Amino acid sequence: MLLKNEPLADKTTIKIGGIAQLFFLPSCLEEVEELLPLLTQDFPLYYLGGGSNTIFGKFKGVVVSSQSLRGFRVLEEDSEGILLEVLAGTLLKELIPLIFEKNLCGIETLLGIPRISVGGAVAMNAGAYGKEISQITEGVYYFDPLKGEFLLERKPRFGYRSSDFPQKGFICKVLLRLKPCPSPIRELVKKLNSRRRKSQPLELPTAGSTFKNPKGNFAGKLLEEVGLKGFCTKKGLCFSRKHANFLVNLSRKATLGDVLKLIDLAKERVLKEYDLWLEEEVKIVSTDG
To answer: Which residues are known catalytic residues?
Structure first.
């Protein structure tokens, strides 16, 4: 499905966004192979997962969503665990019945993140509570629109909240290796989700962590120390009172301009006070300049 002038706010968890010139929602990999090489000739592309860490402005180009590419299958299973092939648009929470049934570990620290998809998690190397999805990723099938072909990257390179994707291409499927848990996974997930709800404003429109943690420090702690915890713009965009590193769109009327103002303010204050330069973890996507 190819849509024109598509609103983007509801494509993200923070509910901020302008208009995409084109919005491509492939229902199968054949549509990816057919249309992406044509679209990339004339438009810039942005690959979108679940929208849990993305904030849009106006985008003059094509937003390519993996939302409809859902499902998974077990490729291998033995006493050491299972190897899954998972389509990129599959939400991590869709794997819960399987991991509960077979008591598997690997994605438990990520399950409480709203609307996080497998492809999106791999693209940014999502992590929490000392674990990252790179630790269980054995391969990534992706489509290179310039070459017009599907490729498999075994053991892809990852960094802190980063990977070689989506620069290499559109993530289509991911190979995940899940292992048996030493304790009941159901109880572990319950404990982690309770901890997350107590410390993060997940009941509000948010894009997750705004800044990456500087080495040896925590962005939320720094923002709180420079007086930004609970700080709001006139349009109701705030650094959360629960966790200062989370922007929350309290009014649901905030714009990308509000986001950029708060990000710049935070960077300036932390730089002045601690001589540290904060780097965004959230993805800012706009062609407005």
So the answer is: 161, 209, 281
